[in-house]
Amino acid sequence: MRIIFCIVILWIGMVLSIPIGGKPALRRSVVVSQPDGSTLCVVRTGNAHCNDVFTEDGYLLQYDETLGYVYAEVDRDASLTASGVVAHDAHCRKVDEMEYLKGYDADAISEALAYKYQEYERGLTVSGATRGMGLYSDAFPRKGEQKGLVILAEFQDVKFNSKTREDSKVDTYSYFHDMLNKPGFDMFGSNGSARDWFVENSGGIFIPTFDVFGPIELSNTMEYYGSNNAAGMDRRGADMVIEACKKLDAEIDFSEYDRDGDGYVDNVYIFYAGLGEADSNESDSLWPCNWTLTQAGKRPFTLDGVRIDRFAYSNETYDDLRRPDGIGTFVHEFSHVLGLPDLYPTATYSSKRDTPLTPWEYSVMDYGSYNDNGLTPPNYSAYERYALDWLVPSEIEEGENEIENIEESNRAIILRTSKDSEYYLLENRQLKGWDKALPAAGMLAWHVDYVPLVFSGNKVNNDKQHQHVELVKANGATDGRHNTLQYLKGFPFPGSSNTVSFGYATIPSLRQWDGASLGVELSGIRIEDGIVRFSAEISESSGITSIDADDHDMETGAAEVEVYDLSGRRWQMKDISSVPGLYIIREGSSVRKIVITMK
After folding, report:
1. What is the DSSP letter of 63?
2. What is the DSSP string of 514-542?
3. Residue 327, Cα to own-chain centre: how many angstroms?
4. What tens digit of pLDDT does each residue of 399-427 get?
5. What is the reported pTM?
6. What b/e string do you get for 159-181 counting C-beta neighbours within 10 Å, with b at 16 or more?
7. Do the Cβ atoms of 435 and 370 come closer than 8 Å?
8. Which terminus, N or C, of the chain has the lesser number of Cβ atoms within 10 Å?
9. Beta partners for residue 292, in sequence order
């Protein structure tokens, strides 16, 4: 198969989304062979639950079992259907095909896409419960020593190692056990194991061990489980999970994997043999995802006294190099298991201009799972660590500030707004360790606006005008036209654009989403010996007084003092001295804000 790499990805249709996590499509053109002997460059968009296939110049395609990829059209019921006209690349189209495309109704296609996904979305329910601001699920314990259940499964027609190059074949059990657990795992140039990645990114707070079982042989072909329904989703991915668990019931004590004691197995993770649909052109494969049996229309079932509902799965083989996949996909999908949402757009758009410009390679919850061909996913950002309760950010200080590399320090600085749910996080990322494959080093600024329904629906960065976990682009890049490496290198401060200031009147600007100033101006942003340094000017209009609880007596002894946090809960003055945060202090007729910081 000939592979064409392409930076550009075209998004067609209305802004649509499905609130379940999955690995993003590999953003490139892929050459497929048509039954008539021709080849066609196609572009796949979306994720496991929201994906479509287009020509490189933007025509929506449908797959016909006899003809191959044909142009989509809308029938009398306003539903998408296959036209019967075989699609070709623009330079290969003949007169009759070009005449047909003159009648291509892009507006009708967009409306039909919208209807298709809305109909599917009505059948989904997602819990909005969250233990951490910025999470969308609460399924897996995130602290201490934990056990994860992993099953290796192959099909009647696709076996482990069958899609890998001869020089990349491995002992399946040993490879996946070591890839998940072995300290310093380095096969195929890996930077470490999944356990290494999570332990290092949590600062030792989360210490997982992944118990691997199998391989087992499933009773049907890959196509049986992975062929797509009308919405472009795997038909029987959930059936694969159910069958795999039941086949191993005698070997696995499933009750050991209910670590939080809620009566449910925390998660079942499956590696299936062969390629994945997200990074290949095999539409009959499965698309890596994180989901539940309930959401897939199945009933949870009981083994060993606990119910099984939550699952995730991903593929064995990395398509480009035809070797076993690295930890990138697993880290992305297991991050969903931990509760993190996707940071790439989980929707489709009418053009690149309309497409939100998201973090791309700077986050494993966006395109970072592909960094270094899937071998070296980037470190969790300050937002991801903060959401998982693995990082307590420092408060900004008047004058000089410095931030060490987050991989080594697990440190970030928070800039608060007038809203408890909206804030900025500043971090230092360097081209070393897990971050060695980032586009560039420097200070990353994340603008977080936590809205529970947006996060629980996994629609975090679908609005170009208001991303909810926005990576501020120091170079001012604004939309999907700016997703090339040249622009990505300009995202950090000072970066390739040499942006050394960040404040109310700069571009980009440091403001709340409602346009209000934070009362903070940053200048002299620079990197010295791998450390980010800058000067901060905090104006009186910010209404914030920084108090170090170790150095100040918090009891005034004067008028009655009332203390409230930003949720409206009342505190005793003596209690807040050990709880960092932003508080409202009412003392007689005087009202002020203070920030409690700890050394």
Report:
1. E
2. TS-B-SEEEEEEEEETTEEEEEEEE-GGG
3. 14
4. 999 999 999 999 999 999 999 899 999 99
5. 0.73
6. ebbebbeeebebebeebbbbbbb
7. no
8. C
9. 310
